[in-house]
C-alpha cells in the first residue's frame, strides 16, 4: 500500500513536466448558452418523487488544433481569444500536465482546461 501511495504522489509531482508544441488551428467552435434539465429523485417520506432541476449552461468556446506530432486536441478558450483567432493560424501550445496555454503573435493567453484529445 505504501509503495502504491508513493507511486501516486510521484505521478502527481512529476506530472507538471512541460511540453511545447507548434500547432495549426483547424477549427473554432461556439456553443451558445442553453439549459439542461435533470430529473432528480427526492424522498418525500415513504415515497420518492422525481423533480426536474433546470441547469443553465453558459456560452462555451473551443479551438481544435493539430499539433506538430500529428495529434488533434480540442482546447477550451475564452471569448476574447476566440475572437482573435482565425482558422489556419499557427500557435504554440504548452502543456504542463494540468493545464494548457496557447500563444499567438507574441501574446500569451492562459487557458485552464481538462485535456480532451480527439
Description:
8% of the residues are buried. This protein is an alpha+beta fold. Helix content is 16%, strand content 55%. The chain has a domain at 12-33 and 60-117: OB fold (Dihydrolipoamide Acetyltransferase, E2P), CATH 2.40.50.140.
Annotation keywords:
2 helices, OB fold (Dihydrolipoamide Acetyltransferase, E2P), two-stranded antiparallel ribbon, 118 residues, disordered C terminus, alpha+beta, 7-stranded antiparallel beta sheet
Secondary-structure blueprint:
Elements lengths: L1 H13 L4 E13 L2 E10 L4 E10 L2 E8 L4 E6 L1 H6 L5 E6 L4 E5 L2 E5 L4 E2 L1
Antiparallel strand pairs: 1-4, 1-6, 2-3, 4-5, 5-9, 6-7, 7-8
Short description:
The chain has helices at 2-14, 79-84, and strands spanning 19-31, 34-43, 48-57, 60-67, 72-77, 90-95, 100-104, 107-111, 116-117. With 118 residues, the chain is of the alpha+beta class. A 7-stranded antiparallel sheet has the order 8-7-6-1-4-5-9.
Amino acid at each position: 500500500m505504501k509503495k502504491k501511495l508513493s507511486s501516486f504522489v510521484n505521478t502527481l509531482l512529476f506530472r507538471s513536466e512541460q511540453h511545447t508544441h507548434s500547432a495549426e488551428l483547424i477549427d473554432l467552435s461556439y456553443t451558445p448558452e442553453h439549459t439542461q434539465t435533470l430529473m432528480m429523485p427526492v424522498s418525500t417520506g415513504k415515497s420518492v418523487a422525481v423533480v426536474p432541476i433546470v441547469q443553465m449552461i453558459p456560452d462555451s468556446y473551443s479551438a481544435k488544433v493539430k499539433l506538430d506530432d500529428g495529434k488533434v486536441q480540442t482546447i477550451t478558450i475564452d471569448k476574447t481569444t476566440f475572437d482573435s483567432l482565425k482558422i489556419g493560424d499557427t500557435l504554440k501550445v504548452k502543456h504542463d500536465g494540468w493545464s494548457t496555454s496557447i500563444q499567438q503573435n507574441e501574446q500569451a493567453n492562459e487557458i485552464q482546461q481538462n485535456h480532451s484529445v480527439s
